[in-house]
Amino acid sequence: MKLENSITHENINQNLLKVNYAVRGPILDRAEQIERELAKGVSKPFERVIRANIGDCHALGQQPFTFIRQVMALVSCPTLLTSEEFPEDVKDKAREILDDCTSGSVGAYSPSLGLRCVRRRAAEYLAARDGVPAAADDVWLGAGASDLVKSVLSLFAGQVDGKPSAVMVPVPQYPLFSGTLAELGVHMAPYYLDEENHWAVCIQELERSWNAASKEHAVRALVIINPGNPTGQVLSRENIEKIIKFAHERRLLIMADEVYQENIISKPFHSFKKVTHELGAPYCDMELSSFVTASKGWAAECGARAAFVELRLPRAARAALLRVRALQQCPAVPGQAVLHCVVRAHPVRSSPTVLCARRCGPPRSGEPSHAQFAAELRSVRAVLRARAAAAHRVFSSLPGYCCNVIDGSMFAFPRVELPARAQRAARRAGLQPDELYCLRLLEDTGICVVPGSGFGQRPGTFHFRTTILHPPHEFRYMLRAIAAFHHSFLEQYRG
Amino acid sequence: MKLENSITHENINQNLLKVNYAVRGPILDRAEQIERELAKGVSKPFERVIRANIGDCHALGQQPFTFIRQVMALVSCPTLLTSEEFPEDVKDKAREILDDCTSGSVGAYSPSLGLRCVRRRAAEYLAARDGVPAAADDVWLGAGASDLVKSVLSLFAGQVDGKPSAVMVPVPQYPLFSGTLAELGVHMAPYYLDEENHWAVCIQELERSWNAASKEHAVRALVIINPGNPTGQVLSRENIEKIIKFAHERRLLIMADEVYQENIISKPFHSFKKVTHELGAPYCDMELSSFVTASKGWAAECGARAAFVELRLPRAARAALLRVRALQQCPAVPGQAVLHCVVRAHPVRSSPTVLCARRCGPPRSGEPSHAQFAAELRSVRAVLRARAAAAHRVFSSLPGYCCNVIDGSMFAFPRVELPARAQRAARRAGLQPDELYCLRLLEDTGICVVPGSGFGQRPGTFHFRTTILHPPHEFRYMLRAIAAFHHSFLEQYRG
Questions:
Q1: What is the DSSP letter of B194?
Q2: Residue-wise pLDDT tens digits, B119-137
Q3: What is the ipTM score, two decimals?
Q4: Closest chain B residue to A109 measured between Cα atoms?
Q5: For B107, which of A143, A301, A330 is closest by C-beta distance?
Q6: Out of B7, B143, B175, whose CB is closest to A332?
Q7: Which positions ≥6 away from A323 have C-beta within 8 Å?
Q8: Of A98, B7, B42, B89, which is most buried by a Cβ count within 10 Å?
Q9: Of the CATH numbers 3.40.640.10, 3.30.360.10, 1.10.760.10, 3.40.50.11720, which one belongs to the domain with range B103-342?
Q10: Could you tell me the pTM of the whole model?
Q11: How do the residues of chain A divide into helix, strand and coil, expressed in percent and rounded to 5?
């Protein structure tokens, strides 16, 4: 008796078949295969694969912050609170967290929204950032920003007055958005970022996108990624004002993916929350969702899966979402402890750049852990700035390359002109031209980057995204290797 | 200009409005309110609220296992690996985990399925449990079993040949299932457990349920909760065989929620995987999903949000689900470390009860941490058995109460006959009769239990679920207080 499958291509949830996530897509599969080949002794023109596909700082050698990891150790193993190996400010932090855990154990469930102490600290952080009070009750903790983005997007699944819902998403975009919308069966209404204008959000393009989508869809929300992923821009205050007015006029929920707000390189960051507040009524009362994570910023604790969203929703929507999230009990409590370390507010501000350095977290000046923390922070910031400048320099100088200045985030996203012969060769192989380019780069150099087609791009343009997180010597090697590869690629496909 | 809401009761995803999760429902809201009243000095007939609504062992005073917490501390803060305060077997475990983390940091993302070393250990655990090899590639780690149950259920959203999908779920059930199905818009096809037959699964009742649902739905999967939640039964091997044959005949994916498999009190546990294997072809080749968690069992590390599912799926379904889960990156890595501590396999087996005590986890006899671990394990097991017996004794002796023997899990689920006058009073107040009973219990005694209507029950019967996890003196108080309350409740509503 042959067994028939209970789940087939035909009867599976069809939305799932439409999900793609290029950051962990076919290029990474091939990179992992190459790693296995190298381990077996297969000869390659390089010694090892360099993963530049994902913003994973620790994987690329950034050392964890001592303070955070000491707090994690203490909350995990409170008997260490009597050890003299830990500074007092670390112990205080750990005690504050443990006092808020039921029966003092990170092994107990927290409230679904997250520990009260973490949500209070997050609200203080927001208040210091924006100059306007924030409510701990509007802070929802989650298992990474991805988890929270999915929850907020889930509000829109279904139809309104017979029209299926749609959400406006920038192109290029971080494919969490396209993937999650596909999973939820919500239409994605793309709007193009203005590459010639430093990846700004053009209001006419928003209008074009909204008009096009509104013919057959109910447009419900507007996703903004600032600082940009993969594009690395930081939006100007004027641009943000116009976006807010656009969203307000059309009753769109702004979803401000601001997870790179602490990865600022050259331009000041303005949160959507702050700008809505400064615009006054009616904008300061808008519903809003904005995302902050422990995976990015200086801490870069991706493995902790810890983030929060400030979510201002009408009461009925809030109650419904609370019930849904309660089904999953709560976010991981050790991750909540990490978030607590990241979001302590520093109210002192002066210039924009000093603001960035100061308001981000513990320990405060005068506390025992401060000197080490400050040294670790300086080092993380200095290398990011240096690498952003080096990447921009190289990607602006190669023939056919073009790259905006990297204002923030941890990525470069150069545009690459690909020869017509290369484009034809790609299509014959069933690949996008930039996929071919990135696969060839991987085979020749071991460098794993993500093709622009994984993020979306204007038709006829080609890009790739690379992280700029590697140790200096490796990063220099990468840039040299990409340059050499590009010349040989052009040579091969010369018209 | 008055701001209109962007999200209203009318335009929100309507599925979200149908989600209910009684374990964190209105009774808990009232309990939390009472706690705040007590804190303000309001006088009550009790000193504090006793939460018996959720299986959260640490919250109720169970101490974490030293070994697990020491491993957590070391993987968080690897500089402690040189400290002499930690035994060598703890250090070995931590090194094994860190060696598998990219660049040795729990702050790096893991593969979406989870760390390779944890999945390999989990496969060994399954192999030792079932006497049949398990593949690490079939082990998917997640943020608690809830996360993984949702993923597997998501396979079924949508329609098959124009019929909406349905999933068979026991009644009473753990409301994660009804809630998640509502969220996904998948129909729940209820089948009643046989309370008179020790909450067994009656095959005729499965057939009735399947036939009823199949008229308008495509029935796709069969949920079994074993040991039962809230019902506390452990299914016999014969019962499991018949269930497997039933599911096979109708091409249903079995979803075996076996998260209480280490909370065995009086009857041997048989996994669905083992029984399919022992039945031989064609059953041993069936697709199957079975869930194991670090939140339950002896470790009870709920806050870690760490679980795995053994998931045998056809290739296309596996690939689709992998892409969807990659959107969320990976489960929290500190939680994966906890799971690694929980699932080390012990191949030694003799009788069923010794099997339970032995196969569960580290450290092994002869290792430095073994004596302390063994003492902690004995204590956890002994108190669970004692409380199960005490609960059964009391709930079998009260007038109008009736309670099956508690074979496993951490709950008692007594049936309570409620006077007709009480039923009428409840309906006048817009409550289910068991809700009224539980609310009154809370107001009179401070004890917070969950009404049977939150889990589902045969019409006209009333139950409640209480955890049996409290410290001995508190548990004795609870049982006495429930008995006294019941007598006064009967008195008040005497016909």
A1: B
A2: 999 999 999 999 999 999 9
A3: 0.95
A4: B303
A5: A301
A6: B143
A7: B16, B19, B20, B21, B179
A8: B7
A9: 3.40.640.10
A10: 0.95
A11: 50, 15, 40
